[in-house]
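seq as requested:
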Amino acid sequence: MMTTPITEDFLRGTPYSEPSDRGLRPHRLPAHVRSRDADAQLALMESHPSGVRIEFVTKSNRVGIELHTTRVAYRGMERARGAVDIVVDGRFHSSTVLCEGDAIELDMATGTRSLLPGDADIVYADDLPGGEKRVEFWLPHNEQIELIALHTDAEVRPLSRSERAAEPVWLHYGSSISQGSNAAHPTGIWPAVAARRAGVSLHNLGFGGSAMVDPFMARLMRDTPADLISVKLGINVVNLDGMRRRIFVPAVHGFLDTIRDGHPETPVLVTSPTHCRIHEDTPGPGGVDPESITEGAMRFIATGTKGDTELGRLTLQVVREALAEVVDARSDDPNLHFLDGLDLFGAEDEARLPLPDGLHPVTEAHRLIGDRFTDLVFGPNGAFGSAGGPSVQPAEH
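struct tokens:
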């Protein structure tokens, strides 16, 4: 087998990385944002390479990727491990759950943490079709990684500039649901489902607990090349109880103004929150149900008072109304669009596919959201339907 170190040329879905002791550590935020603007929560989430993949062309019949992960674990609680998905010439090939790596174990009862060291994983795919082929390793959306090497029985090359340019870039900003929380594998997160069906290159800025309409994030999106842009706002602001309506509305206007400074005519879609029973008409802050910890699980609750929207307190229902009004107020922008998140995942959907922790959808629900987003947004009458991208592909089930 040949061993090829992984360099930035193989990265897609992010332009940011840094060298590590083992190889290359991908990031989803640039160094200046990580050092100045990111709190501990955002710093952790940006280190999880949601939507990031290693892509190359090879004639090899066997391919492997060596990587070392670091994950957060909770003592006494089961938490799903990250996975690596392999896609060959656009078709899903396989998914491998990781079993090695370091764990930072947190004790929720005492607040202490300990490091449990582990080894590197090597994920292989065998019996690939003959001839030259394009291979994608989709990296875990829920664990920090260091990329070490590719292992193949033939030479590999990164995608050329023309091969990269053939796919429109979709830049998406959102919360933990956009990052992929509770999805079982990286191509199963809803933005990946939509991007693969639509034939676009995903650049995912979904950050768990961190979609706070931050000005620095708007500046980053302003300066990031993109053919299509979407922002999914609201749930984290409600979780934190971080704003009132008086602050939220102008903050969203300012966020969009900043994006428009760098993308004056790019199609931009504003999407409101999907259904989440605990916060529909109950403001935050959100919290963890203490009983769930004793049961070896984690469930989220809303600690506000049901129906209390006095003084502009935000619930998901209030947020949806506010975002629709923001887009309506910008009617002079023909390339700005609105999508009600309930059209992606509504009350009936949550009744059929309950959120196991009260907040995040399961893999089947991610697939449902991704398929609906593709049909509504990338379809012929959708906000991105006339953007010049490839035709929408049938859903994979």
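The chain has a mean pLDDT of 94.
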